[in-house]
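Design job #97: recover the sequence.
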């Protein structure tokens, strides 16, 4: 029952984000634009400004919420979210490097590409530091080390920024925003987010089994190594794509699963799909509040 309600609210919020703003577009004007014969002003507002922002907000929010719900179940830690494993911080460091060294000026896709590369690099470091250990504690400690290193690199780039304008650009990106996003950003993030979601949605039953501990899950036939690989790879690819286009946003993956859990079954897999729907609506409401 919860999922259909969230989907309806998501559609309402997405429609409202397309219609309302500094310039209100009627349903007739929106329909005309979508049919291909709208007036130039409405076409520009809808297709070049509001639609890309809406899609980026939905995709990034869905991915971050889904990753947070999965990690809280997998690590059996209510405070787990993508930054715990260093994924968000490493993606942010990759984007900051693109801004600091001027690589982002080469092509609009360079900043997202480096952000995704930073997230994937964090995954490699996570496996190196955690080794073959199946303990969530090992992953958390390795992730905290990676996150600390990435945050230190980001702070260094801010302190050594060549001018105040570069520092301001980096800070604006680190705060997280979907302003001035184009359909190109959607095209960059969409494949990564879809792959990440597909990997994370494969192991719902494994999350329930892991609530009994590693030994209990293994006795139920869960392949812990493959499960860990799929989940961490899904988080790295998906969150890397989300952070690449929306900036570093930490609260979504942490808060949303807790908001939804009282309305679902207490088993770990039940909040996963709703957590992929609710954040998109939340991101759209914040975007509308900001104009």
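Job complete. Output follows.
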């Amino acid at each position: 029952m919860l999922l259909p309600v969230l989907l309806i609210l998501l559609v309402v919020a997405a429609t409202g984000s397309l219609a309302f703003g500094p310039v209100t577009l009627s349903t007739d004007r929106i329909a005309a634009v979508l049919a291909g014969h709208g007036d130039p002003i409405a076409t520009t507002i809808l297709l070049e400004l509001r639609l890309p922002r809406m899609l980026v907000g939905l995709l990034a929010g869905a991915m971050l919420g889904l990753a947070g719900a999965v990690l809280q179940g997998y690590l059996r830690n209510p405070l787990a979210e993508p930054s715990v494993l260093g994924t968000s911080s490493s993606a942010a460091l990759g984007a900051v490097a693109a801004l600091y060294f001027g690589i982002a000026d080469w092509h609009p896709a360079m900043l997202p590409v480096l952000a995704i590369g930073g997230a994937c690099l964090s995954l490699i470091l996570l496996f190196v530091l955690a080794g073959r250990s199946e303990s969530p504690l090992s992953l958390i400690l390795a992730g905290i080390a990676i996150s600390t290193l990435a945050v230190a690199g980001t702070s260094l780039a801010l302190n050594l920024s060549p001018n105040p304008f570069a520092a301001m650009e980096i800070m604006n990106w680190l705060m997280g925003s979907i302003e001035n996003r184009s359909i190109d950003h959607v095209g960059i993030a969409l494949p990564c987010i879809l792959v990440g979601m597909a990997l994370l949605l494969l192991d719902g039953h494994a999350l329930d089994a892991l609530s009994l501990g590693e030994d209990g899950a293994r006795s139920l036939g869960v392949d812990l190594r493959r499960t860990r690989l799929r989940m961490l790879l899904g988080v790295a690819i998906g969150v890397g794509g989300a952070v690449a286009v929306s900036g570093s946003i930490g609260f979504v993956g942490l808060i949303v699963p807790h908001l939804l859990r009282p309305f679902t079954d207490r088993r770990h897999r039940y909040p996963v799909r709703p957590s992929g729907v609710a954040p998109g609506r939340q991101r759209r409401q914040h975007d509308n509040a900001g104009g």
